[in-house]
Amino acid sequence: INAVLRASKVCQKVFQNLVTSDTVIKKDRSPVTVADFSAQAVVNKILYESFPNDPIVGEEESGSLRGDSGKELRNKVLSLVNTVLDTPLNDNELLETIDRGSFPGGSSGRMWTLDPIDGTMGFLRGDQYCIGLALIIDGDVHLGVLGCPNLPVDLKVPEGERGSLFIAVKGQGAFQHKFSSTEETQICLADISSPLAASFCESVVAEHSSHSDAAKIASLLGITKPPLRMDSMCKYCAVARGDADIYLRLPVSMDYEEKIWDHAAGCILIKEAGGIISDINNKPLDFSLGRTLKSNKGIVVAHSKIHGQVIDAVQQVILKK
Ligand SMILES: Nc1ncnc2c1ncn2[C@@H]1O[C@H](COP(=O)(O)OS(=O)(=O)O)[C@@H](OP(=O)(O)O)[C@H]1O
Ligand SMILES: [Mg+2]
Ligand SMILES: [Mg+2]
Ligand SMILES: [Mg+2]
């Protein structure tokens, strides 16, 4: 929790200091690159202090921070990281710390998986993004922590306080608290018995999840509410606390392999909040095969009372293609 909250703080600093209206207009990705590396360094460092022997499967690697060509970026990242760490890092320690995330994954032992910023596009727009961290033991997710700096504490009060943290521990339930307090509330999916009344949640970017297939599935299920489009693993958080009922991630290309850091923390959050998570073929997500979910295609999340019906509709639409 400490690691995710400190990384969230770094990301917020980057947004305040480096993202301007020009950034979005010029499609300049440099601020999110700074935030990505900084957040991965902060989480990896804090994990290392408590669990020096645990390997980490992290999204980023330090290549572009090395050498003369990486000096400017490296200096930016280093000074940011050192504003939130208790013991400062030097140049080499920074690179080493980021690259502690290079573990290939697999089916045995303990490992963490980290997405330092999920929803890079959302971050740049000032919309939703998430710092997602999960602990996997023997291929099974045991803990998930998701920091959502821009997610309203209560979606019904969109102008209210932002900054929501989600925690799920295997067998112990799913919880939310505000960044500003440690008081936890247990969360669960909205109780729903028919897909007719459901609302669904999908990616903002259609390249990550087919909007047209989702619209066909919604129409087959008789869903009339417009989809809630949101970047990042915040979608898992939204469904886990009942803001929406169904999360669909429908493959756009058949050769894309989903990354474990994009789903591990969300997967346990959904299960602990009483939902079912599978791929489009109703197979459980398999986190034991390395850095990607190579045996899965897409994601379907829903309450247990309607997950089967959603899968039937998904299959009809996908098989027809
Ligand atoms: N082709 C394709 N299909 C599916 N997923 C892909 C694809 N390409 C990229 N990615 C991954 O999508 C992650 C962001 O997913 P989101 O659901 O947040 O998408 S979006 O922000 O709403 O567009 C994004 O994570 P981040 O890079 O951490 O932002 C990618 O890992
Ligand atoms: Mg991601
Ligand atoms: Mg990322
Ligand atoms: Mg990425």
Automatic annotation (TrEMBL):
Enzyme Commission numbers on file: 3.1.3.7
GO MF annotation: an example: metal ion binding
Keyword Zinc: no
InterPro entries: DPNP (IPR006239), Inositol_monoP_metal-BS (IPR020583), Inositol_monoP_superfamily (IPR051090), Inositol_monophosphatase-like (IPR000760), Inositol_monophosphatase_CS (IPR020550)
GO biological process, alphabetically ordered: phosphatidylinositol phosphate biosynthetic process; sulfate assimilation
Residues the record lists as binding Mg(2+): 59, 115, 117-118, 262
Source organism superkingdom: Eukaryota
Coiled-coil parts of chain: none
Keyword Signal: yes
SUPFAM superfamilies: Carbohydrate phosphatase
Keywords in alphabetical order: Hydrolase, Magnesium, Metal-binding, Signal
Catalytic reactions of this protein: 3'-phosphoadenylyl sulfate + H2O = adenosine 5'-phosphosulfate + phosphate; adenosine 3',5'-bisphosphate + H2O = AMP + phosphate; adenosine 2',5'-bisphosphate + H2O = AMP + phosphate
Cofactor dependence: Mg(2+)
Similarity remark: Belongs to the inositol monophosphatase superfamily.
Protein's name according to its UniProt entry: 3'(2'),5'-bisphosphate nucleotidase
Organism: Gigaspora margarita
